Amino acid sequence: MPRKRAEIIRIPRIEDPRGNLSFIEHSAKGVLPFAPQRVYWIYDVPGGRERHGHAFRRGEELIVALSGSFDVVLTDPDGLEITHRLARSYYGVYVPAGTWRALRNFSSNSVAMVLSSTHYDADDYIEDFNEYITFAEAPEKDGETPSEAAASTCKPAPTADSHLTSRLADCRIIDLARHRHANGSLSVAQNTPDHPFHIKRAFYLYDVPAGAERGGHSHFEAEELIMSVSGAFDVVLSDGAATRTFTLSRPYQALYVPAGIWRELNNFSGGSVCLVLTSENYLEADYCRDPEEFKRLTAGK
């Protein structure tokens, strides 16, 4: 089986005067070549710094610049480098397994997001270039890829309308691990038993004017983690009986929002980027966008 090739992927961009939105998912309508198992983001990188090079034996990646810019440098076993400059949030670099890559030349206030086909596994990393050469020159083995294995997982159907069962008390701030390094911090969410849900989709708001308002809907099934990876904004939540406001301003904190909760985002600071990880691929029928319909759905509380 021939090895996959790295490529630039155009990510859908939905333009809006209140801020643009892009989404990434593994579906017929999505652009992600694999089912995501881990999402991490790199931030607080001093300008001009480099994240060290490595390759993965099994893991595939999609790398996106959520804010700022940086280079994705791919190196073949002969030492030939190909550099892709990421400076737009609607482009990403797909990096297949067995590809040596490094991130270089970060601009100030950059945020890099990486979606991975595998959970974190130290044994999957190749961090010595000579070892990488040996691995890259070995014959490719056939077999099920990590993304194909993950895609077979099914989620049980909900037993009741979430609008009647969800409560504001179910919403909470989750402190994510913050791995600090001189070349930037890293936080991660991945599909492990301690995660609130299985991540299927990532979307993000950017180019948001200061003071803009977004949101104004609930979901029947989708659960979400909402994060501010740059800047700050408020998330106003309602379960139909009560309302609570959360302020997000730290990239290592995520707001968990279960299905059935109405949310609005406002008070954006200039340059804010909102990252959302969700349990479902996009389906318009999963949205309740009418406030009066939401009141009807939650009237039995």
Which key terms come to mind for this protein?
301 residues; mainly beta; Jelly Rolls; 2 domains; 7-stranded antiparallel beta sheet; 6-stranded antiparallel beta sheet; 4 helices
Provide a descriptive summary of the structure in words.
There is one protein chain. The protein has 301 residues and is mainly β. It has two domains: 7-151, Jelly Rolls; 162-181 and 192-297, Jelly Rolls (Sandwich). Helices cover 9% and strands 40% of the residues. It contains four helices and 23 strands. It has helices at residues 129-137, 146-151, 162-165, 291-297; strands spanning 7-10, 13-14, 20-25, 38-43, 51-56, 61-67, 70-75, 81-86, 91-95, 100-104, 111-116, 125-126, 172-175, 185-190, 201-206, 214-219, 224-230, 233-238, 243-248, 253-257, 262-266, 273-278, 287-288. A seven-stranded antiparallel beta sheet has the order 2-3-15-22-17-20-13, with no helix packed on it. A hairpin with a 5-residue loop joins strand 7 (70-75) and strand 8. The chain starts with 6 loop residues before the first strand and ends with a helix. The model is unreliable at 143-154 (pLDDT under 50).
Query: CATH class of the largest domain, please?
Result: Mainly Beta
> Main beta sheet, described?
7 strands, antiparallel
CATH superfamily of the largest domain: Jelly Rolls
Biggest sheet: strand arrangement:
2-3-15-22-17-20-13
CATH architecture of the largest domain: Sandwich
- At the third CATH level, what is the topology name of the largest domain? Jelly Rolls
- Mean residue pLDDT: 92
User: What structural class is derived from the secondary structure elements?
Assistant: mainly beta
Tally the helices: what do you get?
4
Share of residues in strands? 35-45%
Task: Give the distance, in angstroms, between the N- and C-terminal Cα atoms.
Answer: 56 Å
Element order: H for helix, E for strand: EEEEEEEEEEEEHHHEEEEEEEEEEEH
User: What is the strand tally?
Assistant: 23
Spans of at least 5 consecutive residues with low confidence: 143-154
Q: Please indicate the count of domains.
A: 2
